[in-house]
Write a structure and sequence with these properties.
Distance between the termini: 173 Å
Strand content: under 5%
Largest sheet: none
Number of strands: 0
Order of helices and strands: HHHHHHHHHHHHH
Structural class: mainly alpha
Helix content: 55-70%
Radius of gyration: 38 Å
């Protein structure tokens, strides 16, 4: 009986490329394996900066058009199919891509899965190999090369900070700390990334980190290091972009779809109009002419002569 060959991993070219980068950071630069994963994250996010700026412009456009989008949703709320058609037509007319803000996240998914497979085998061989030694140890304990951690093969080879093994899933207090860091950083980045006032979308973005918790707790700890690092990068990046653009740091708009300048204008108290006198002020030109004429008339008219005092008669009356 012949067995069919297992299909090759389509991500293998990316796995080989990222593995080469990580080994370079470790062997050439001298970083630990944990710091090499963080350095790889920084490199990937740096390459995605142009797309991130495009994402920010898309978010601004959606924020500016939010009142019109809400009006369309209210207008066709009873006909979902017509609502979708009108929304797509509206996006095309205004040249806005509603999924543009998801592009950097989508492009990070191949990196995420590549690192997942690397930590299960390829990078594991680099850390505590050779492969034959890992396979022999795994056979002794009844595991495979993908389910055994480097801590069981070569203790201390994959340690990073409080994490005992980057190639194996965390347990106990280490897992709790990593989950708290993941959920906290993911929530903070979601708040900064959200620009819509739609309650359902906000709820989804806030709920997603908690939905992922049951799945990521079985991932290799090094993958959580990557995820936490990219979340913190997103937080710092969004903070700097919003500060430089003069926008509020929080993700929620200041007013319903109004830009920052308009919101500030609305929030500013109105100045009280100055009370005018009942008599209308003459125009500036006429007022100036009147002043010149009055001064000229004063110069042309001679001053009145001094009044003469009457002398008192001192003679006696006869």
């Amino acid at each position: 009986m012949t067995t069919l060959p297992i299909a090759a991993n389509p991500l293998q070219p990316l796995i080989d490329a990222f593995d080469w980068v990580l080994v370079g950071f470790h062997d050439t630069v001298g970083l630990s394996w944990g710091m090499s994963i963080i350095a790889l994250t920084v490199v990937v996010r740096t390459l995605l900066i142009p797309l991130t700026l495009k994402q920010f412009k898309s978010m601004q456009s959606l924020q500016r058009l939010a009142p019109e989008i809400k009006a369309l949703q209210e207008k066709y709320k009873d006909d979902k199919q017509r609502q979708q058609q009108e929304m797509m037509k509206f996006y095309q007319e205004n040249k806005v891509n509603p999924f543009g803000s998801c592009l950097p996240l989508v492009l990070q998914m191949p990196v995420f899965f590549s690192l997942f497979y690397m930590l299960r085998k390829d990078l594991k061989i680099d850390i505590c190999g050779p492969e034959a030694v890992i396979a022999a140890k795994a056979h002794e304990v009844g595991k495979t090369i993908t389910t055994i951690g480097c801590q069981e093969v070569k203790p201390g080879s994959a340690t990073f900070g409080f994490i005992p093994d980057l190639t194996f899933h965390a347990t106990g207090g280490v897992l709790i700390v990593l989950l708290v860091l993941y959920v906290g950083s993911q929530l903070l980045s979601s708040v900064l990334m959200s620009v819509t006032a739609d309650r359902n979308q906000r709820f989804i973005m806030i709920a997603l980190p908690f939905v992922f918790v049951p799945f990521i707790q079985s991932f290799p700890a090094g993958l959580l290091v990557y995820w936490i690092t990219t979340n913190l990068w997103t937080v710092g990046q969004q903070y700097l972009i919003r500060r430089s653009a003069g926008m509020p740091v929080r993700g929620a708009p200041a007013a319903a779809g109004a830009p920052a300048g308009a919101a500030a204008a609305v929030a500013a108290p109105k100045a009280k109009p100055e009370k005018r006198s009942k008599e209308k002020d003459p125009p500036a030109a006429e007022n100036g002419k009147g002043k010149h004429a009055a001064s000229a008339s004063r110069r042309a008219t001679p001053p009145p002569p001094p009044r003469q005092r009457k002398k008192k008669k001192t003679g006696r009356r006869r």
